[in-house]
Amino acid sequence: MPHHDFKPLSLMSAGAPNANADTEHWTPLPWADSPRYDARSVLPHWPRLHAGHELPLPAEGSALAEGWALYHSGEFERAAAIGLQQGAEGMALANQATAIYANYLEPRESIRLAMFRQVIERAGAQAAAEPDNCQALYWQSYALGRYSQGISVARALAQGLGSKLKGALERVIELQPRHADAHLALASFHAEVIDKVGALVGRMTYGVRSETSIELFERGLELHPHSAAGMMEYARAQLMLHGESRMGEATRLYEKAAELKPADARERLDVELARAGLRD
Question: Which of 32, 85, 120, 221 has the least C-beta neighbours within 10 A?
Answer without folding.
Answer: 32
